[in-house]
Design brief:
The protein has 126 residues and is of the alpha+beta class. The protein has seven helices and four strands, in the order βαβααββαααα. The protein has helices at 10-22, 36-39, 47-50, 67-76, 81-88, 90-105, 107-113; strands at residues 2-5, 29-32, 55-57, 63-65. Helix 1 (10-22) links the parallel strand 1 and strand 2. Helix 4 crosses helix 5 (81-88) and helix 4 (67-76) packs across helix 6. The two termini are 23 Å apart.
């Protein structure tokens, strides 16, 4: 599964690093979205759309975006299995997308709070 992330964002880079550590089996291919590898992916949205949210592409070429992408990652990485289970409960599932959007909208602020390089440009839409 290919995961496109914003390597210019401290929070996004920190998250990608955490996923690398948790993904001991190497199920995820973490790709900076401004790389040649990302540009070569069939069906990839335009760059400005990629900067808005995380994009995940499975082996069959299906894209999952934002909260749905996060769920795909949680399903693929065993260490995140309990979170995936909780996120699929009806009461919790309806909050996955909005929670993801809130974090994505504020990732530049979160980056600064964590002492990381903030995103060069805050996302305009989520």
């Amino acid at each position: 599964m290919q995961v496109l992330y914003d390597a210019d964002c401290g929070f996004c880079s920190r998250s990608a690093g955490l996923l690398r550590r948790l993904d001991r089996a190497g199920r995820l291919e973490l790709i900076p979205l401004k790389s040649a590898a990302a540009a070569a992916l069939p069906g990839a949205p335009p760059d400005d759309r990629l900067l808005e949210r995380m994009h995940v592409r499975d082996a069959s070429g299906h894209w999952s975006i934002g909260g749905a992408g996060w769920l795909r990652i949680a399903d693929a990485v065993p260490a995140l299995g309990p979170l995936a289970f909780l996120a699929r409960l009806p009461v919790v599932h309806r909050f996955v997308g909005p929670a993801y959007a809130l974090i994505a909208r504020n990732r530049h602020r979160i980056s600064r709070l964590l002492g990381d390089d903030a995103c060069a440009k805050p996302a305009s839409r989520q």
